[in-house]
Amino acid sequence: MKKNDNHNEKNAKEGDLELNKSNATDQFLTTNQGVKINDNNNSLKAGERGASLLEDFILREKITHFDHERIPERIVHARGSAAHGYFELYNSMEKYTKAGFLNDTNTKTPVFVRFSTVAGSRGSTDLARDVRGFSVKFYTQEGNYDLVGNNMPVFFIQDAMKFPDLIHAVKPEPHNEIPQAASAHDTFWDFISLMPESMHMIMWVMSDRAIPRSLRMMEGFGVHTFRFINDKNESHFVKFHWKPKLGMHSVLWDEAQKISGKNSDFHKQDLWEAIDSGNFPEWELGVQIIPESDEHKFDFDLLDPTKLIPEELVPVTIIGKMVLNRNPDNFFAETEQVAFHPGHVVPGIDFTNDPLLQGRLFSYTDTQLSRLGSPNFHEIPINRTIAPMHNNQRDGHMRQEIATGKVSYHPNSLGGGCPFQAKIDEGGFASFNERIDAHKIRERSDSFSDHFSQAKLFYDSQTAIEQEHIIKALSFELGKVETVAIRERMLGLLSEIDKILANKVAKELGMVVPKEAKKPINHGVGADDDHIKHEPKIVKQNIEISDALSILKNPPPISTIATRQIAFLCCDGVNAASIKNMKLALKDAGAVVKIIAPHLGTILSEEGIEISVDQSYLIAASVLFDGVFIPAGKEILKLKDIKEVKEFITDSYKHCKYIATENQGTDVLKSILNKENVNDAGLLISETIGDKNLASSFVNALTKHRFWEREAKS
Ligand code: HDE
Q: Could you list the active site residues?
């Protein structure tokens, strides 16, 4: 992408007030018309105490522009974080698709990726329990291809017709705009309790997938079944997967809530800092490929977006990798103005008749018209294709291109026939020649009627710890619902998935599971019972457990603690050698160490060495860190009386984090945690100061992210 030249800080040293004007002669402040401004502090007035004059074009231009700085935020996925990078192909996919960027292993395709939460406004918190958007714009030689997916492989609804209802239900309630970014309220669960088709997605949203530790540590999915088309015009069905190199990690719900208060930009900052420090996040692109002839081979319909294809049935083939290596230069110009569209496809990729996907194909252009204000949104730098672009579309608000000549129609002879249509073998896009012979109806296929089997598959595939998190999440969310009848309906639906799950949630709610699941008013299918063509049903699946669905059953492909944040709890009188040894080991392994102390500035070690402090206890919080070290030190025991330190250690312990201590540091731990808890293999303790073995065991332990056994025990 071409960078903007409007750098105000071009020749200035960071924070330096002594700007050297002689080096910055091209940096005069000007109006938007390029007129140099002589006074940017005072408006034009009739006398120094007089009224402002309408004639002041400089003031008017500045304020008018300011008044219009905001554009409507996205109705969904408003809060986003993005980065630039590239995609590299491992093996040619030409057997399946003619898409150039999936054929040529020598091409590095530039990408721009935007992650988002769905329900919250632009200013909401990163750690809301929510689906995350995972949108990738590939700037291919044959035009832009957008893979506009989520971090969960299924969706709440089966038909685009229900999308506005879903979003109205999940967004803050319209009368009081509460709650922001959270689904824990009556309208959402009212809708869900009447839509059994949402049950599979609800299991995902109530799982730890909805509260990732980092955007760099979550999977991505294309969700719908798409088609690959090869140069013989043969079609294969395809599902897209993004697998993070750092593996999948999540935070606990208690942490998520606290992080929202301590740093609502936790994910945004994490992504930014990782890229800024050269720790470029990577994902591998995987595909599940299904021959056309296998379309009806499964226990579910490939066109139903509430279903996934278990990896055990169709393995995911890894075909390439994506690296994010550059932060945006300007949030508004790039992250905000980027316009994704599942209909931005290139030859070799095509759609299926998934009724949710079909609705999306209409929606995304429409939304850009009101959000970006013009059909010329493709001319905004971040949206421009790198492929040559010629057509006869003209004019409109904010047109950038100055089209020359008098010909803007096709066919023409006056323009030499340009621009020409491309034949298929010249790279022209032609839709897959699918045979359709059908009645015009408003109906849902009977093959879409099983709403519980995959919800059960997901739940059954989790470890006991993960199942417990789902139970807690449901108890929390439904506990916030005030209407008892909604909670009751939900318990009925949950009992269709798993009786123990439903009973445990019921117990937390002080209720009993209804004997029979209450029949939702309309099964989400029609306005009244007359329209119900197909009762919900359960189809026995030919797979009972899919390990790929669990986070904890899938350790990261690479064992690293790079970019992990480790807190060193310190004060005056700390032992500098103890800090130095541990810091070295952690930094060598790529972790980020922060010295925390009662005040900013410096502290004095017992050896008389000044140590710089990164954060004070007022600012730091355990939930913002992955691990904790309490070093040795003659006066370190003073920490046990600091309220924030007590909270720090208690929270770290409660959230199953690894804690290392050396010598007197162990006494701080012992005095804050009760004795029994100190016998815990997640606590790494050494009597020796500067213990190299302790440091390497701590590094090793941190690769596991959490000491889950602690939670299982409690
Ligand atoms: Fe979207 N969706 N969506 N969606 N969606 C938008 O487009 C819509 C759906 C997804 O980072 C909007 O530019 C309809 C599924 C992502 O800029 C809007 C339906 C999936 C993003 C829209 C769906 C998604 C959006 C709002 C049902 C996962 C953020 C702003 C038929 C596969 C893109 C915008 C970004 C954004 C409509 C369902 C993913 C209004 C009508 C399923 C990641 O056009």
A: 77, 150
Ligand 1 atom with the shortest distance to the CA of 80? 11
State the CATH architecture for 3-38+456-549: Up-down Bundle (1.20)
Quick check: bond before 179 cis, omega within 30?
Answer: yes
Nearest to 113 by CA among 147, 83, 152: 83
pLDDT at 16: 64
Q: Which CATH architecture does the domain made up of 45-193+210-390 adopt?
A: Beta Barrel (2.40)
Query: Which residue among 112, 144, 148 has the greatest number of ligand 1 atoms within 8 angstroms of its CB, and so is best to mutate?
Result: 148
Q: Is the dihedral of CA 496, 497, 500, 502 positive or negative?
A: negative
What CATH number labels 565-713? 3.40.50.880
* 565-713 matches 45-193+210-390 in CATH topology: no
**Ligand 1 atom nearest to CA at 164:** 41
Residue 527 has a pLDDT of: 45
564, two tokens: 């992990």
- For ligand 1, atom 11, name the residue with the nearest CA: 114
For ligand 1, the distance from its centroid to the CA atom of residue 73, given in whole angstroms, is 13
Which residue among 71, 73, 74 has the greatest number of ligand 1 atoms within 8 angstroms of its CB, and so is best to mutate? 74
Amino acid letter for position 411? P
**What is the pTM assigned to this prediction?**
0.95
Domain locations in the chain as residue ranges: 3-38+456-549, 45-193+210-390, 565-713
Ligand 1 neighbours (beta carbon < 6 A): 74-77, 80, 114, 116, 133, 135, 148-150, 155, 160, 163, 223, 305, 338-340, 356, 359-360, 363-364, 367
Averaged pLDDT, groups of 10, the chain, 714 residues long: 49 58 73 93 94 93 92 97 98 98 97 98 97 98 98 97 96 94 94 96 98 98 98 97 97 98 97 98 98 95 98 97 98 98 98 96 94 96 97 95 95 96 95 92 93 97 98 98 97 96 98 83 48 67 91 91 97 98 97 98 98 97 98 97 97 97 96 81 96 97 94 76
**Nearest CA among 359, 105, 92, 334 for reference residue 223:** 359
Mutate to test the pocket of ligand 1, among 71, 74, 76 (most ligand atoms within 8 A of CB): 76
- Neighbour order of strands in the sheet with 592-597: 615-616, 592-597, 565-569, 627-630, 658-662, 683-686
Whose structure tokens read 């073995």? 693
